[in-house]
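I have been asked to look over a protein record a colleague put together. Alongside the sequence sits a line of tokens, each denoting a local backbone shape. Please read both lines and tell me whether the tokens look consistent with the sequence. Take the sequence as given and treat only the tokens as open to question. I have pasted the whole thing underneath without changing anything:
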Amino acid sequence: SYTRLFRALNRDPQLFQQYLTQSYSCPTSINQREQLVLNVRTSQSRVDLLLRTFLNEFVTCFECQKAQTHLIRTTNLWRIECQVCGSQR
């Protein structure tokens, strides 16, 4: 499930939900079974592509390519801080 994946990555699953809402321009929700529900016709490959893009932008460190990062909200921007190499972006 996407919610378990994002909890393991130390991210709020609702961030990915918001990302999909913007990408598809459609309502999304997380049901009681923690499943992501999209109110649009799509394919698994398209969702997988969006997931990879999200992980590259909001989880993975650009320097060391590790996923041990923290997402920090500053004013109107998100900052990613790597716990392995210390880089920020």
Remarks:
- The chain has a mean pLDDT of 90.
- The beta strands are 28-30, 36-38, 69-74, 77-82.
